[in-house]
Amino acid sequence: MALSASELEALDREGYVVVAGALDGAWLARLRRAFDGAPAQRDGTQHVRLGEATPEIGAWRALERHPVIEAAIGHILGRACAIDVHGRNPLAGFGQQGLHADWRPRAPGSPYAVVTAIWMVDDFTPDNGATRVVPGSHRSLGPPPKALAQPLARHPAETIITGRAGSVLVFNGHLWHSGQRNASGRPRRAVQLVAVACDAGANVER
Predict the structure, then answer these.
(1) Alpha-carbon distance 189 to 176, whole Å?
(2) DSSP secondary structure string for all residues of the chain
(3) How many percent of the chain have pLDDT more than 70?
(4) Which of 34, 155, 159, 192 is 20 to 30 Å apart from 139, CA to CA?
């Protein structure tokens, strides 16, 4: 499953695209096993960091070669030399973030440095902290203003990304985005992938 011409245009124009049905039920079941028993951190989020003991590690590593990811990397970066994959599950009452980008501000005329994908391991709904994005903000050369980077601040143009489990939100990592508070009492497991351009160095914002 590669990205269509209209989806590539959306990446250029809006900075993001949502692809439904990118993962089947069997793949999702394998990803979920790594969340079983993974500890929650003090920030109220369950994290999965990949290592030799990670259950179903092959299912996680295969995301790096998914056709959607390869198409997005090729279109935005040309080539990536570093890819990080990890899991996140904000527990009930947690997960609210301020708007941010996944890379430092760009200099005028400089290329994009990062592509991000968020794989929906559970449904993303308005009440469980689904990711919000500000369409077109990837073209900005600076970070969100401080007032908008506060966790409870709202951007007038922000969009809440919802979707069924198995969908993937893939976006230009310079796009302003954030997670939100999980008010549902249900898990909102996701796998985040960050791919960095070969000449970009290492400066991923988290």
Answers:
(1) 21
(2) ----HHHHHHHHHTSEEEETTSS-HHHHHHHHHTTTTPPB-TTSEEEEE--TTSTTHHHHHGGGG-HHHHHHHHHHTS-EEEEEEEEEEEPTT------B-SSPPPPTTPPP-EEEEEEESS-B-TTTT--EE-TTGGG-SSPPPTTTSSTT---TT-EE--B-TT-EEEEETTS-EE-----SSS---EEEEEEEETTS-S----
(3) 97
(4) 192
By the 10 Å C-beta count (0-12 exposed, 13-18 middle, 19+ buried), 6 is classed as exposed
Q: What is the pLDDT of residues 146-185, one digit of tens each?
A: 999 999 999 999 999 999 999 999 999 999 999 999 999 8
Question: Which residues in 100-118 are b (16+ Cβ under 10 Å) and which e?
Answer: bbbbbebeeeeebbbbbbb
Confidence of residue 204 (pLDDT cuts 50, 70, 90): very low
Whether 171 and 116 have beta carbons less than 8 Å apart is answered as: yes
Over pLDDT 90: what percentage of the chain?
90
Tens digit of each residue's pLDDT (9 = 90 or more) over 86-109? 999 999 999 999 999 999 999 999
Contact 118, 192 (CB under 8 A): yes
